[in-house]
Amino acid sequence: MARANVSSLVVNPFAPPPKAVQTPLVSSGNIYDPLVSRGMAIANEIEIQKAIQLLKERLKGEQYTQKHFGRLEVQPADKIDINIDIQRFLEMTHIGKNIITLFDPRIMQPLNVIYIKATGRYSAWEGQQSGTAFALMMHFGLISSDTLIQCKVVDDDLEVPGSTSVGEAVGSYGFRCINYKGRKEPDLYWIFRSMVNGVRLYDSSLTEDIQANEIQNILQTHNMFAAPAVNAQGNKAKPGMITHISSMMKLAGHDTDKFDDMQKDLNWVLEWHNKFYASEKGVDGGYLITFGRFATLCREQDIKITKDHELEFYQHMKRYGSPRAFHQDCKTRYTRWAGSGWRDACLLPIWIKDYMKRGGTLTLPTIPNYNEYKSL
C-alpha cells in the first residue's frame, strides 16, 4: 500500500466538525520543559502534598544527601553477578527481539547493583535482561571485549534515612518497587506516538516506526486519530477517536512480516466505519476486533469483501443500534452463558450467527471457533 500524502488528505464532508480536530502527535511551540518547572506545575496538588507529608514523617526530620543515591561506575561484565532470588527468569524472546535486534548503546540503561564488600563483586538486582544481552553481544564480537558496563552502585552497608534495609534487601525491594509500583507503564498511545514521531520528526528507519507511521497515515486518510484511553472516559470520546491502540496495531500486523497484507485489513475496517459511523463517538474496540478478524479471514480464505457485504452488514448492525451497542450485547450474552468473565473471541461468531439467523446469504469465511459460541 502506498504511503499516504499527509498534505493531500481530504476531510470527510459528512463527518461532524469535532472529527476534524485531530489530537496532535507533535507539540506546538518549545518542546523542552525544564525539569524543575515541570515538577513545580504539580507541587501543590493534593496527591503530591499528601505523599510529601508521609515521606517527611518517615524521615523524622532527616534529609537525603548525595551519598544516599549511590554512585555511577563502569565495570567489566565478568565482575557482575545476577541475584536469581531477586530477578525473574531470562526471557529469550525479549532479549533477542526487543534488545539485541533493536540495540543501540546510547539507550542502554545502567545496571542497578549492590557492591558486596566481602567478595569485591557486584550483585545486579535490576537490568538482568539488558546485561545478559550485553554479555551475548560481547561474546559474538559485536561489542569490543574491553567495553565496560555502566552501573549504579550502592554499597552493601549503605544506610539511608527512613529505612532499616541494607545490602541485598535493598535490591529485593528495589526490583519490586521499580517493576511493580515505581515505574508506571505508559498508555500504548504514547508508545505509538513515539514510533510515528520517530519517522516524522527524526527520520527513523526502524521497521516498527515506519509501520506505525503507515498506520497513522491510514487513520488520517479516514479522518481518525489515536488518543490515550483516559480521553474516552466519562463519555468524552470524539468521533474518529481510537483508544484501543493494541487492537488497532494487532489488526494491522504491526511489527510482523505480515504487515504489508494486514494493514489492508485495517484500512477496510476503518474505511467502513468512517463511511457509516462517522458521527459515532469513538471507534469501539469490539468493532475493531470483530471486523478486523473478519477481514483477515476473508483475505486468508480468498473471499472478496464486496459493497454488498458493507451494505448488508450496516443493515445488520442496525439490529443492535451501533457498534458499541453490539459489543455490549455480546458481553451480556456471554456473561449470561458463561456466568462470569469475558472473551472477545465470541464477537465474530456472534456476529456471523446473528447475520445468518436473519437470512444473510452472502459468502462468508469459515470461523475457526464458530461452534464454540454457536449457542450464544
Topology overview:
Elements: H1 35-40, H2 46-59, E1 71-75, E2 80-82, H3 92-100, E3 111-116, E4 121-126, H4 128-139, E5 149-155, H5 168-182, H6 188-200, H7 207-221, E6 225-226, E7 241-242, H8 245-251, H9 259-276, H10 285-300, H11 307-317, H12 323-338, H13 347-357
Parallel strand pairs: 2-4, 3-5, 6-7
Antiparallel strand pairs: 1-5, 3-4
Brief sketch in words of this structure:
The protein has 376 residues and is α/β, with parallel strands linked by helices. Helix content is 43%, strand content 8%.
Give the tags.
376 residues; alpha/beta; Conserved hypothetical protein from pyrococcus furiosus pfu- 392566-001, ParB domain; 2 domains; five-stranded mixed sheet; two-stranded parallel sheet; 13 helices; 7 strands; elongated; disordered N terminus
Describe the overall structure.
With 376 residues, the chain is of the alpha/beta class. The protein has two domains: 54-182, Alpha-Beta Complex (Conserved hypothetical protein from pyrococcus furiosus pfu- 392566-001, ParB domain); 188-373, no CATH class. The chain is 43% helix and 8% strand. The chain contains 13 helices and seven strands. A five-stranded mixed β-sheet has the order 1-5-3-4-2. Helix 3 (92-100) packs across helix 4, helix 6 (188-200) packs across helix 7 and helix 9 (259-276) packs across helix 10. 26% of the residues are buried. Residues 1-16 have low confidence and may be disordered.
Specify the helix fraction band: 40-55%
Strand order of the largest sheet: 1-5-3-4-2
> Given the C-alpha coordinates, what overall shape results?
elongated
Strand content: 5-15%
What is the average of the pLDDT values? 90
Which stretches are poorly predicted, pLDDT < 50 over at least 5 residues?
Answer: 1-16
Helix tally? 13
- Integer-rounded radius of gyration: 26 Å
Instruction: Characterize the main sheet.
Output: 5 strands, mixed
Helix-strand sequence? HHEEHEEHEHHHEEHHHHHH
Total domains:
2
The count of DSSP E runs of length 2 or more, i.e. the number of strands, is 7
Structural class assignment: alpha/beta
Distance between termini? 38 Å
